[in-house]
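[Meeting: bench + compute handoff]

Bench side (C.D.) handed over the final construct sequence. Compute side (W.E.) agreed to return the predicted structure before the next meeting so the bench team could plan truncations. Sequence as handed over:
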Amino acid sequence: MRISACGRSDIGLRRSNNEDAWLADTESGLFLVADGMGGAAAGEVASGLFVRTAARVVVSGPHRSEALAVACLRRVFTEARQAILRHVAQHPAHAAMGCTAELLLLHRSGFVLGHVGDSRTYLLRGGRLRLLTRDHTLVQQEVDQGVVSPAEARHHLMRNVLLRAVTANGPANEDIIRGQCMAADLFLLCSDGFSDMVDDARILELLVRPAPLAEKAARCIDAARRAGGGDNITVVLVAVE
């Protein structure tokens, strides 16, 4: 596989600081988006700890086996939680801190994806857009139970109430998604500041339009800002060339 990638983050129009963090490393085949929570500087710290943990743990490249990729992924989530736990022990006022996380690792026969929270990962393949993850939110649980419709969920007042995150309060219980890579695949990792503002039809339109990755990422940020920019906005694009 030949891989190219691009990431971009924006504070949005209503926040005073950016608590999102991202990483796109084609050499190690590591790509991630983390969305911090906890208020003040705490969310920023949590997402930063997740990124630094991933960069330290993942040292092998895309030639790794699937088994090694899964082991690395699990270790990142475990050690990121431990780092947050140590920080909270030293800064009790940050007890509510944590982050959502999308962590994509490529290996020699495909990809593994770790997912916790309401950030998302999409795959564009053959002109069709597929959401690979399922939000760990109270509203998504109600959608699964048939209590609210997917259309109602997009505007539900409780849509950002998380059921899972990387915090000091217990294991993240990350979902692990596995799959094969195909030529011309395009992965989109994003924080909810993007997916809450831009629906799937518009995302497809932004991604299929021919343009360099950097331009596509910029268009994604601009679309979320134009739609209201209610939160920090972060996207990472990963193309299999």
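W.E. noted at the follow-up: The mean pLDDT is 94. C.D. will use this when planning the next construct.
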